[in-house]
Amino acid sequence: MKNLDYQSASEIVIFGALGDLSRRKLLPALYQLEVCGLINEQSRIVGVARQEHTPKEFEAIVLENLQAFVKEALDEAVLTRFLARLVYQQLDFKNEQAYVNLANTLASGNKTRVYYFSTPPAIYGDICAGLNEAQLISDSDRVVMEKPIGHSLESSKVVNDKVAKYFKEQQTYRIDHYLGKETVLNLLVLRFANSLFTNNWDRNSIDHVQITVAESVGIEGRWGFYDEAGQMRDMVQNHLLQILSLLAMEPPADLSAQSVRDEKLKAVKALRPINKENIKEKTVRGQYSDGFLNGAPVPGYLNEEGANKDSTTETFVAIKAEIDNWRWKGVPFYLRTGKRMPAKHSEIVVHFKQQPHNIFKDSYSDLPANKLTIRLQPDEGVELQMMNKIPGIASQMHIQENKLDLSFSQTYKNERVIDAYERLMLEVLNGNQSLFVSRDEVEAAWTWADSIIDAWQSTNEAPKPYPAGSWGPVSSIALIARDDRQWVE
C-alpha cells in the first residue's frame, strides 16, 4: 500500500449500500482503488442499509457483487485487504434516534467521514438530520449526492437547502458520473492544450455541434422513477448540459474547482431560453413504441411491465440549443438523447465551416467540411475527418476524405480505461471538487430545463411515437433538416 500523505484516513459511509448503484458501481470502484493502492491504509468502508445482516453476510454480498461487476480477475491479496475494511450497520434512515448506533460503529478520532447518499434524494434531509442528532457532522466531513437532484428547480432547492443546513458548499460533492469519463475529461485537454483547436473554437470556424447520447435499453424495470422523470430531467438537464458547458465554456484561469465551475456556469446561463413561443421550433419529444432491437421484438414504453397506459412521459428528446455570447452567437448545438435506440452510442461531433472556395472541383465537386468526432462510449476516442491527396502519377489531382483516428483502446493498449466512479471516488477522498457540480450549476440547468418542460405541458401534446430500434421520431430529422443539416449516425 502506498503512503498517501495527501489523503487523510476516512470512514467511507455508504447509505444504501445494498442498492443497485452501490453494488454495481461504488463498491467495484473502491475495490479498483484498492488495486491501485489509492486508499489510505487506515480507511474503512461502512455499509449502511435498512436490512439486517451480520458482518459476514455483508462481506459475502460484497464479494458476490465484485465477482459480478469487476471485469478483471480478482486479486486474492487485494481482495483480502479490501474485505478487511468492510463494516456493516443496519439503520432506519428516518429514525433520528437510531443514528446513535451508527455513531457507535464509526471510529472515534480525527478520521474524515465521507457520507455517500446512494438513496433517493427525498430522504437526504432525513439522513442529515439523523447524523446531526448523533453529532456525526464536523467541518472536515464530506457528503456525496447523486444527480439529478430533485425534479425541478424548486424541488432541487428544497433538497439542497436541507443538506446545506448541515454541510457547507465546500463539503458537498454532487456527482454527475459523465464528468468522470476519460473522454469527457479529455475535452479540457483537447480544447486548451492544442492550439489547432484553441484558436478555432468559436463562431468564426465552427458551423454547428451535435451531442448524441443514445441508449439501446428501455426503462429496465424502473417504471416508477422514470415515468416521473422522463428523458429531459434524467438526461438533458443532467448529463447533456454538463457536456455542453465543457464544450462551450471560456478558458478557465486554472484547473481549480472554482475556476472550472465558474466558466461552466456562465455557459449554461448564456443558453437562450426555450419557452411557449419557440418550443415547437426548437424541440422534439418522443416515446418509443413496439419495435425490434438486434432482430428481437421489444415492447413499447406503454407496454412495459407496470406501465401507465396513458403516460405522456418522453423517452426521447432533441433540442436545438443556442448560446447568446460572443464566442457562440449563431452556432447551434443540437442535442439528442433517447432510449431504445439502435445502439448504446454517445458522441460529440464538431462540424467546422466549409472552405470559402473549392479549387479541387475537377476531382471533388462538393468539398466537405472538417469534422471532429469525440466518441464518449463505447469505443472511446477522437477522430478528425479531413481531405488528403490519393497517391498517384496522374496529372489531375485526386483527393478523398480520410480520418485521423485516435482510439483509446489502440493508442493506450497498456492502460486500463478508468471507470468514471473510480475517478470520482478518488477525487472525493482527496478533497478535490473540480469534477463535481456546484449548486449554482444545478440551479442554472434546472432553470433552463424547467422552461422547456413547462412549455411542453402548456401545449398538451403527446410525445411523437418512434419504433424501438430507430433513431427517434421523424420530426427530430426535420428539426435539424430545417437548417439544411443532418444528424450523424
Would you mind describing this structure in some detail?
The protein has a 9-stranded mixed beta sheet with strand order 16-15-14-13-7-12-11-8-17, with helices on both faces. A 6-stranded parallel beta sheet has the order 3-2-1-4-5-6, sandwiched between helices. The protein is of the alpha/beta class and 489 residues long. It has 2 domains: 4-146, 3-Layer(aba) Sandwich (Rossmann fold), CATH 3.40.50.720; 179-415 and 438-482, Dihydrodipicolinate Reductase, domain 2. It is globular. Helix 1 crosses helix 13 (420-430) and helix 6 (153-164) packs antiparallel against helix 14 (439-459). The protein has 15 helices and 17 strands.
Number of domains: 2
Instruction: State the CATH class of the largest domain.
Output: Alpha Beta
Structural class: alpha/beta
Q: What fold name goes in the CATH topology slot of the largest domain? A: Dihydrodipicolinate Reductase, domain 2
Tell me the overall shape: globular
The CATH superfamily of the largest domain appears as Dihydrodipicolinate Reductase, domain 2
* Count of DSSP strands: 17
What is the gyration radius calculated from CA atoms?
24 Å
- Uncertain spans, ≥5 residues at pLDDT below 50? none
End-to-end separation in angstroms reads 46 Å
**Annotation field: number of helices:** 15
Mean pLDDT: 91
Largest β sheet strand count, sense and barrel closure = 9 strands, mixed
Share of helix among residues?
Answer: 25-40%
Beta-strand residue fraction: 15-25%
The CATH architecture assignment of the largest domain turns out to be 2-Layer Sandwich
Cross-sheet strand order for the largest sheet: 16-15-14-13-7-12-11-8-17
